[in-house]
Amino acid sequence: MPLDTDLIRAEFPAFREPSLDGWAFFENAGGSYTSQQVLGRLDHYYRATKVQPYGFYPASREAGAAMDLAHRRMAQALNVGMDWIHFGPSTSGNTYTLGNAFAGWLKPGDAVVVTNQDHEANGGAWRRLADRGIVIREWQVDPVTGHLDPAALDKLLDSKVRAVCFPHASNIVGEINPVHEIVQKAKSFGAVTVVDGVSYAPHGLPDLLELGCDVYLFSAYKVYGPHQGVMAIRPSLASELPNQGHFFNDTQPRKRLTPAGPDHAQIAATAGVADYFERVAELAGDRVEGANPFRKAHAAMRLQEEILLAPLMEFLRSKNNVRLIGPTDPTKRAPTVSLALGELAVEAADRLARHKVMASGGHFYAYRLLEALGLNPGHGVLRVSFTHYTSPAEVQRLIEALDAELK
Question: What residues pair up with 358 in beta bridges, in sequence order?
Answer without folding.
Answer: 25
